[in-house]
Write a structure and sequence with these properties.
The chain is of the alpha/beta class. The protein has eleven helices and 18 strands. It has a single domain, classed as Metallo-beta-lactamase, Chain A (4-Layer Sandwich), CATH 3.60.15.
Length: about 375
């Protein structure tokens, strides 16, 4: 019955434009929030989260939407109620048609006035076009299979049928240890997470789902299976992304939606780099936490501060002797730049045979990953 209702909501959306036979994904830089655009081979679109409030992120959306040829959002998924995820929704809804809205239900953070104010406005914006998701729901995005695996602190309970590796025992669970999550904002636990399957290609996005919740999907058995592209959890903060998750899903590629000083923790970077079968990590920003020892090679990073700023951080004594305090956005002396302008994104195009190409919009560097043997 729920699936019927969701399909009916999708049918009310205007017919999407035709596009090439690829699933196109755009990881938009919102400086450590989330805004991820998925364009199905049919041309139908899904935007996951809307970054921060203000013109900065709206301008970045406009640039990526123009690149993707997108003139409407058929499905808007709000993963949870934090300002770096919902902040741009009102402005976006004023600028672009949105067909349907999806979320996990009411926020657990009802004691926060900004959240309460946003929920009231969101109810007005989404009236008559809103679905509260539960695990097992499917969002009808063209000919893709978009399966909800987590929502509202609930999780799928059985392995995903037909998914490679789903249902197998997860040896990484033996070393999993709980963490102190007293500093974790509680609505992160309620994040919507999903798997998109396009033929042989699979990608996972769990938004800000936390370390303590990951075993519900992965232990003692891996319910998700392996994926080709992993959208790293929680911007690469050390509050998410345990070995029990990352090493079990065995991504070939990970894309991290970090900011220069938000996310990109040493722990998250090291866990990803050590994941069995990983070929590359792509990052939206060079992480000031990771320094040269833990970040991906520069060619895989979309936004990097100028050399003087980086030199001042990596070797501050030598930089001071040379009198260098450069840095785009006033971030000299190794303090890190301000908002990047221009801001670059990472995009990926996947084919139904399981092969895919990832591109860094800063330098035009692309790498194609051939279909993985099953």
């Amino acid at each position: 019955m729920r699936a019927t209702k969701i399909l009916l909501a999708a049918a009310l959306c205007a017919a999407p434009p035709l596009s090439a036979q690829t699933l196109d994904m755009y990881f938009i830089d919102v400086e450590g929030g989330q805004a991820t655009l998925y364009v199905a081979p049919s041309g139908e679109t899904m935007l996951v989260d809307t970054g921060f409030p203000g013109e900065r992120d709206q301008n970045r959306f406009a640039e990526v939407f123009a690149r993707a040829g997108v003139e409407r959002i058929d499905h808007l998924l709000l993963s949870h109620y934090h300002g770096d995820h919902y902040g741009g929704l009102e402005a976006l809804a004023e600028r672009m048609p949105i067909g349907h809205y999806y979320d996990h239900g009411s926020s657990i953070e009802s004691d926060r006035h900004r959240v309460v104010e946003f929920e009231a406005r969101y109810a007005e914006i989404s009236q008559g076009a809103r679905t509260v998701l539960v695990p097992g729901d499917r969002i009808p995005l063209g000919d893709l299979d978009v399966l909800v695996v987590a929502s509202n602190d609930q999780f799928i309970e059985s392995p995903i049928a037909g998914a490679p590796g789903a249902g197998l025992a997860n040896p990484a669970c033996a070393s999993w240890q709980p963490r102190d999550e007293s500093r974790v904002d509680p609505d992160n636990h309620y994040s919507v997470g999903f798997v998109i399957t396009y033929g042989e290609f699979r990608t996972l996005n769990l938004s800000d789902l936390t370390w303590s919740r990951e075993p519900k999907l992965m232990c003692p058995n891996n319910l998700i299976g392996t994926v080709d592209l992993y959208h790293t959890s929680h911007h690469g903060l050390d509050q998410s992304g345990s070995e029990a998750l990352v090493h079990a899903i065995r991504p070939r590629v990970a894309v991290m939606n970090n900011g220069p000083r938000k996310g990109g923790s040493v722990q998250a970077l090291d866990i990803i780099h050590a994941s069995p079968g990983l070929e590359d990590l792509w990052q939206l920003h060079w992480s000031y936490h990771g320094l040269a020892e833990h970040n991906a090679p520069g060619v895989f990073i979309a936004n990097i501060d100028d050399p003087a700023t980086l030199a001042g951080l990596i070797n501050p004594e030598e930089s001071a002797q040379a009198g260098g305090r450069g840095g785009r956005g006033g971030g000299g002396g190794g303090r890190g730049a301000g908002d990047h302008d221009p801001a670059y994104w990472v995009e990926a195009s996947a084919r139904s045979d399981g092969s895919f190409t990832v591109t860094n919009s800063r330098n035009g560097f692309s790498k194609t990953y051939e279909a993985r043997a099953r």
